[in-house]
Amino acid sequence: MIAYIIRRLLLLPIILIGVTFLIFCMFSLLSPMERLATYVNDPSTLKNPQAAERIIEKYHLNDPFPLGYIQWVKRIAKFDLGWSQAANQPVWDAICQRFPATLELVIYSIVPVILVGIWLGVISAVHHNDIIDQSIRVTAIVGWSLPTFIFGLLVLFVFYGILGWLPPGRLSTWAQDIVYTGTNFHSYTHLVTIDALLNGNIPIFVDALRHLCAPIITLSYVYWAFLLRIARSSMLDTLRKDYIRTARAKGVDEHTVIHKHAERNALIPVVTIAGMLIIGMLGGVVVAETVFTYPGLGFWAATAAQQLDYGSVIGFALLFALIMVVGNLVVDVSYAFIDPRVRLE
Amino acid sequence: MNRTLRKLFSNATSLLGIILLVFFIIIAIFAPVLAPPLSDDPYQIPRMSWDVNPQPPGFPMSDNIKDMYKYIGKEVKYDKAICGTAQGGYDIFYGLIWGTRTAFKIGITTVFSAMLIGLFIGSIAAYFGRWVDEVLMRITDIFLSFPFLVAAMVLTTILGRGLNKVMIALIAFGWMGYARVIRGSILSAKEETYVMAAKALGVRDGKIIWRHLLPNTIFPVLIQASMNIGTMVVTAATLSFLGVGAPLGYADWGQMVSFARNWIVGAPGHAGQYWYSVFYPGIFIILFVLAWNLIGDALRDILDPRLRGEL
Amino acid sequence: MKFKIFGIMLLALLVSTSFAFGAVKNPDTIVEATIGGPETMDPHWSYDTASGEVIYHTYDCLIAYKGESLSEFVPMLATEVPSAKNGLIKDNGLTYIFPIRKGVKFQNGDILTPEDVEYSFERGMIFDRSGGPVWMLLEPLCGVGSIEEVATKVTGVENYGDMFDGDELKPEYKDAMTKVYTDYVDKTVEVDGDKVIFHLAQPYAPFLNIISHGGSWGSIIDKKWSIAQGAWDGKADTWWKYHDPKCEEDPLYATANGTGAFMLKKWIPEEVIMLERFNDYWQGPAKIKNVVIKYVNEWTTRKLMLQTGDADIVYVPNQYMDEVTGMEGVRVVEDLPTLQNAVSMFPWIINAEGNPNIGSGKLDGEGIPSDFFSDIHVRKGFSYLFPYELFIDKIQKGRAIRNPGPLVKGLLGYSDDPSLFYNFNLSKATEEFKKAWDGKLWEKGCKFNIFYNAGNDVRKAACDMIAAYARLINLKFKLTPVGVQWSSYLKQFLSEKLPFYTIGWLADYPDPHNWIPTYIGSSGTYSAYFGKAYGEFAKKNIDPLIDKAIKSTDPEERAKLYKELVKIAHDQAISLYLYQPIGHHVERDWVKGWYYNAIMPGEPAGADFYSLSKSE
Q1: Which residues have CB under 8 Å from B23's CB, separation 6+?
Q2: Per the CB < 8 Å rule, is B266 touching C320?
Q3: A residues 269-328 lying closer than 8 A (beta carbon) to B
Q4: pLDDT(A29) > 90
């Protein structure tokens, strides 16, 4: 197992180089002028050919391919990712500012996904092929088929347009006032709900939660269907195992068999897949945040993409890829701990 | 194969999928009859009016647009927006019909191309093994390091607006799954005696892969492909919704939903007055994807050896 | 079961909080919801309305417009408005004298001095970021368009950049560059006791308008504080280090310390600006305590914020006006004259090099020649082809008017003489097109792309209309509307590659000189890119009139000259003058004290938060 982990760690730099190289290749698809624009905050600067020349020089935009890549990586290492037109600030600042909001959303979305997904998956497997299983599966397929943005618009329409319960954004005006500028409010984590609790400010906590609900519902809906499928097949597999049959044959009651014996073992792969799911959620974040104008990374990236703000989009891709790479590593390593069967492939 | 088909038709859910799919195929084939194009580019949705606000179903073609078409010798077969107009006067009905063609075009092209790439890379990696395998699989890992939607969004943004660009982006980041699946299958199949025999006889590597290995291992890939068509169409629609997909006015369901976005709530006291602008394109996307998923799901259950005989 | 209870509790909490509001929401805070946030807090960088709106409230100018007026001024940090009558404008308009108010406090407690005023303008001039607004100070004061122009003239180098080695100035240029400051910049603004004197390079009719513009180049900053922040140290031999910095490296990028009525409390780019009342404001503290400007791009969200009273002032695009008129508790102010317009350009010579936009580049039905629009009949043909009324009615929802030529209503020299307007007339358009290119155009047809900036649905509709009607009169006229991203749009128009494109202008100051040269002068912001042929035409027929008009101090003579220029623009059909929007303002009816001034920064109408209060 140690050999596996070492091998996995050794692969990390290769993957990192590959990922950055791939992003740089995409970046190189842009015309020199467009690449230039990612480092300029005011397009009218481009009117001045000398100013443009200076920037090209400074950022080595005319260097041949491998050299250009090295220069680019060096700049990234210094967190110089260019200027975000969409956020009106440097890309790195924009990322730092928006990251906590997205993190908060993802953390809260995981809970319903895992609970509902696993719960339904187990039920479905236990009631294999009868009416409950069939209806759960159909719901899952429908959920799987329902594009996130349509479902999100539906939630927005019902819970905001008609009922007025779940407002878009991240905080109400009064709460914003307190969180951003209040003297008695300290932002320890920048996760508003946690900060509110740490400050003992319940109204802010509730306000933040109200704003989080709709994107959470939207984000989790798609993913629980996915998790359900995996939980179901893993559970079905386990229920067919010999030791379960033995337990049943011994006359252990069905409840104990399912919840004590089968569930525990069936959920090992599910839990690791859940780890990957969280990472996968990063994609769904773009849609959920955009629909509810939730000011996180996804909303910013979508706005940037619309405005063809290449600097932001590249920075966003880089960040998410890095999170994915590191996340995958963590998942693989922890999987190796949980399931000792994992060895060198 | 026959057994599979029989099962597909006998299963209620997959039958529903097949019926839906046939419905969409009919729409796509008869698009020029159902909604005769009014301009050179049939995928450009005609405007029923110049008005920026959506107009309800039954809204007649106005602002002299009909006269205009008459003048240039186009016969206007229907002069009412049956499903209403989207923001900007675009005819929703026309967009739905021709959007079906767009959806098929996206789904089939992207999945087919991505599958070919995946098959190529996966089979080469598995067949030759060792460093070839190592290099190709690490490249696959690198491509897998991006959330699919994010990668597609980024690449489309860089390539520029347009359906072709969307498809390129979807293909570029959509082949890895196939590569992994085919690699797994071939790894186990290549030790079989018939492959060994072919090798010993000096049959060329390409031929062994093409003639012997692929036909015996391609099935799981095909299942995956059928399930991915829906995903590809949804992703393309999502990109259009985010504003980086099809160009403005192109018959594309995702874009039509994005047209509806600012009208979804309606004026105070008239909640949902513009329901038609989101309902029609929304339901088309959902049903289209559902059709493929139902078929794919049933196929998987039928062909998954672990579950064989269970259903 | 546990989940159920938790769920019910949660639901109860959510529902209970959503209906808890009283009569006037946030009684001492004005919340504005608009689109597109500011770029900077530095007055000398600011050239966008969003930055302007904030800086307008954090900084003051020497003088300001009086209420709604665009021609009368009130003293602000100066105690008197200069005029020839009170002797503060001298030497035929070459000298302006401003007595500076005493005892005015900056927000950090510093007291305003005349040196601060001198520093403010000089810092602006040496700062002169590319694409920035400072040309408006340099043109009257130094007679040039940029400080780099002065520098290259004094040092004799060809390009400003040649004097630098990386970021460092080459030593041989140091003395000459110091001279740029001592011989030019320094001499334009001088302190004399408690007065500040401006020396103009040429008589300049709209000078007071420029000085009085709030929210940008006219703002007075605190010298001591600015230097402490790391802005220009005021020395002659360092200025180039502070010239044209990167936006975020500018020391005043995200901080503010003016004499204005509000202090900058928090700025989260593209999300929110929070301002707080400055209690030591020299005119007395504002009635409201806080201002929150939220940047919400989604219309649905803004609308609901207005409906629930979470926002007091909301930006409403034209097409959604129906949804707010009649909304309970909301006041809509309509028919506000704006000082902006949108114009479609016909460049006389299009850069044909590697340019796919003009097809074959020949008049063979598969493209257009690069000098396509230099034929007046082509331009006139298109001018008759546009359905102005339909466009204003359906796309602008009636909230726009037409302009004769490049001058908007409300300015000197504007005329609504019907003979200065082209009307939508297909037979006249046909007639013109038949005359164009000796009939060859009509016979062969043409094929080219017409442009709008992506995302701008109004301009896209305009392009669609032109394309549709062109096809209507001749099937061989194939125009393809193409949406291009803004920065690429700008770049392509600067390289003269766009055959037909739409662009707008928003007034910097309410004077025709801000409009006519921009659109039709030989070196105008837009018209400089119409190609060489146009430049020659403009130099001969337009520039002399512009020059005469700016130097004249007699309003009647100026009006006559500008009318003449508008007539040339119309007769020559230099561009397709689309529309001038009519503004509106939407606020909760508990907001009191709002007034409209067309030049005040804000979209679509600015608000002077100092004058506002909230009550039932």
Answers
A1: none
A2: no
A3: 279-280, 282-284, 286-287, 290, 301-302, 304-306, 308, 310, 313-314, 316-317, 320-321, 324-325, 328
A4: no
